[in-house]
Design goal:
The complex is a heterotrimer of chains A (144), B (409) and C (118).
Chain A: E1 20-22, H1 23-27, E2 31-33, E3 39-42, E4 45-50, E5 56-63, H2 65-72, H3 74-87, E6 96-99, E7 103-106, E8 110-112, H4 119-131
Parallel strand pairs in A: 2-8
Antiparallel strand pairs in A: 2-3, 4-5, 5-6, 7-8
Chain B: H1 2-18, H2 21-34, H3 41-63, H4 67-110, H5 114-131, H6 134-145, H7 149-157, H8 162-170, H9 180-194, H10 197-209, H11 217-245, H12 256-302, H13 316-334, H14 339-364, H15 368-371, H16 378-404
Chain C: E1 10-12, E2 18-28, E3 42-49, H1 68-77, E4 82-85, E5 97-98
Parallel strand pairs in C: 1-5
Antiparallel strand pairs in C: 1-2, 2-3, 3-4
Classes of the chains: A alpha+beta (144), B mainly alpha (409), C mainly beta (118).
Amino acid sequence: MEAPVNSPGRAEFRAPAGRVYDAYLHLLDRQIIDPDGEMIAKVDDVELEISDEGVLYVTALLTGPAALGPRMGGPLGKAMVAIQARLHGTGGPGPGRIPYHLITDIGSAITVSAQPADLTIRGLEDWVRTRIIDAIPGASDAPQ
Amino acid sequence: MRRFFAITLGILTAIGGFVDIGDLVANALVGSRYGFALAWVVPVGVIGICLYAEMCGRVAAASGRAVFDLIRERLGPRWGLGNLTASFLVTALTLAAEIGGVALALELASSVNYLLWIPMVGFLVWLVIWRVRFERMEQVFGLGGLALIVFAVAFWQLGPDWGQLIHNATHPTLEPGEGRATYFYYAIALFGAAMTPYEVFFFSSGGVEEHWSAEDFAVMRSNVFIGFPLGGLLSLAIMGVAALVFFPAGVQVETLGQMALPTALALGKIGLAVALLGIFAATFGAALETGLSAGYTVAQYFGWQWGKFVRPLQAARFHLVILLSLIAGVMLMLTTVDPIKVTEYSIVFSAIALPLTYLPILVIANDPDYMGEKVNGRFANLFGTVYLVLILVVSAAAIPLMIATKAGQ
Amino acid sequence: MRLSELLGLEVVDRAGAHVGTVSDIRLAQDGPPQELGQARLRVAGLVVSPRHGGRLLGYDRIPYEGPWLIRRIVRTYHHGTRYVPWEWIEDRTGRPLRIDHPIDAIPHLRDLPAGPGA
């Protein structure tokens, strides 16, 4: 006899086979780091796609003002999206995208396997580095 | 032996680095106006900062992440941005105050007007942040700050009546004409000076800079539980000499020169010189810390690479934020606004911003996601909660009291 | 679509009664194994909170940690939080999100056997 509808024993509520995460708690706003521990970005949003069987999967991490802006909402959010559009590298005005398959660990930070080739992620950093910081003597020296 | 040396060095650095321009001004002001009637606030503040600094240090050592890094994760991007804005503005204001403090110390030493020193100080602070290794920076200015011990020596020399002193400290009474509202306003200011937000951001980010791990718990804890209270004693010494010299005369301290004067009275020119050295080292060190904290908070919210442990080229946005904050601080001080006034406002605004800083720390230090087994024990949670309630009360009372007393008139 | 588009959405039951707003999304890592890296993360269900907005600070999901006072405050604030399996959503593009069960069938989060383990 099937368990009553709201019984925790029902199939839908049994613990899934693999690990369980809560997206807002464990994914969103987490720091993304490379294998050496260098900081890449924060998870500003997450891309979801529907599979052929109708299941929704995580397919990429999204970063940058174009990802954070819509989450902030309001005039501030719109301003952030506009900033991304102006500052981006050769990529389109969309958000920085790190495909899911690059993730190697989900812990207190999210580790990805390599520096993503996506230029929009590095847009602001590269801009500041080349225009301003590079000009100052000693920028490439290790601290004394 | 080497370990003993490391621990001792850490403690000494913590003592010398504890006092900044906010502590200096707050303690001297309160001592001159109230004698020892507000002395009780200092231990309360010191216990609070010890409690939370240990939590922040533990977070850095256990998770490899700095506290502000985790604030956005816990509060979400919108509240996190509000927190960032408030914390950044308070830190930037404090940075301006520290720059002012360094310039005032140089003015006292050289008789060259402090305004001429301001741009030079800003540049030097930037240069040290740009070039000097983190540990070396901390040690040099932390040890230099130990010169402030001269205030304790001066206090001893001035021969206080210990019996009277203890009585006044434990039975605070108000002079006729002093209102209760002002008394509590200054209590809040003193508390805000002891528990400034940037200190915990800096402490945890510094822990990541120095790559703390589980092995560093002992050193970190000794720095906090021995170093900070001894640093608190220096604060009390500064209050004490002002209380002995200015309070009986009814003179309220208003300039840095007056704050340092008791050392000259007790120990002559040498005493004053040592005091100025200590003030210079303490405020310059604090300027470095607040400058870096301005960068830490912004970079950690957005997830940018930060830190002195990488070359400047690898943390371009972080260094840009620091540069812009320093420029803003210098420009603010060049408007000839009184540096002492700026300091007073920075500590009161720090008191208002305290809950934004400390509530997330308490939450984060309990999260096994970050801390593993090193989550808060019952003791830390109990006292942490007590202090959080106190912080909320202080923060809520700060603005009404500020308005009611016209910022402490 | 983006995860953030699901957060904050109003959720109603079969009869149209208000259940709450989406405060978190539960992901299960039981997708097909990948050649490199992690197994795929599947959207398993929605955590729905009766109060609008409000950051949960994670305390309702970590029942055994934290200062007693804060735990009590958060638990009271999020007393009626429920969990809706993804399959129960009729149409993920519908606004508000409609569940094809009555509200009484939707379990409270605290009654469920498994919590997240990162």
